[in-house]
Amino acid sequence: MRSYLYSILLWMIPCDCTCNWYYREHITRHCYRVTNTIIFLIIPLSRSNQQNKGRRGYSTTASTQTGTATTESGDVQLSETIANAMLSDAIANYDPSKDLGSPEDFQQVANGVFQAEGSISAYIRGTLIKPLFTLGQALSPGSLAFFVRLWHAVGKAGTLRLVLSADNRWILRLDSQSWTHILGVFTNYFCFVYGEKFIGFRKLAAIYRIGNSSASLEVFKLVYSLTTTSSQRLLSLPVFLASVGIEYDGNSNPSTVFTDNFQVPSLLFLLGLWLGDGTFSIRIRLVAARKGNLWLIPTIRLAQLNSAMNQHLFDMFAAGVKALGVSSHARADKRGMLDVVLEGSTNVLPIIDTLFTQHIHFLYWKYPQLEMLYKYSVFVKSGIHSTHIGLIAILEMIYSYPSERDHSLGY
User: Which of 42 and 265 is assigned the larger pLDDT?
Assistant: First the structure.
């Protein structure tokens, strides 16, 4: 009965959005127009089809490795043949004329994704220094579409490959150890980032200017100051310097001073940042003082390591969303993470209406999560959420998406 009522409610929802929900990887869409109304019958495809994984490397010299891995749900194991076919087909069938969104808009999104998921580092072999650029994401149809477009956008610089993570998941990764690619291509393309990524590119440029094979105290201080790798080194800076015959002056900081990026980020950069590290949910709060009274709280959360650089990033984030009349707040937790949270319809719905629905073609692997918030926004704008039947329909919609919950729908 409830499912029947839910279908009726969908017929009642007015159409005031752009109807370009097209991702075949995530949904099968049927839209029926009746005067000024639309019914959305959105049928998610099976998650096993969404999350196929495999391994193959593509560059000027392609590389392959054998192996199998499970999907995120752990219920499907892929052969190397299937895995290789996924990536090779995505590359062979890529047609830039079919890309949605301008190259400039895509660059902003890609910068946000790199801010969240990328890294800049360097490693030392003897006294030779090699740079390392990496950007990865769990393999899915959405990430395939994103990375194949990105790889072409940077002129196929670096290697596009699939690697197996420590927890037996396939990761699609773009990486490079080439000074030419990193300083000549990636530094220019990923110029809108902040913090350790923004400064990391400049530290690599300084290392290269001084001489990447020079046994210089300043060079090794620069290498060790790269945040993403300093804690992973087998030898501390004083021990390493002693091993190569360089006297340590007691100060681990390089003499070169670097300034962070203070340009207010674009909304598309923030979209990319959410793609990488964002989570989207609707919290259900039962108000104890009033029996049966429920609060539905849409939430967008972004988490980063708690550091001065990431605090600056979140200050820039707040300035970016302020243009939409949206307020955000950052808070530190006991795990050493810094969260910036948008809560409530007042703060979340403008993001959905202004950013996500207008740029749905850039949602990629986060489409399923954002689909739930979009459906919620349609209910709220129609006013149906304030009715008993509408509230039931929203709850059923929320519970139709997999998530860890404290209570069942029946509760």
Answer: 265
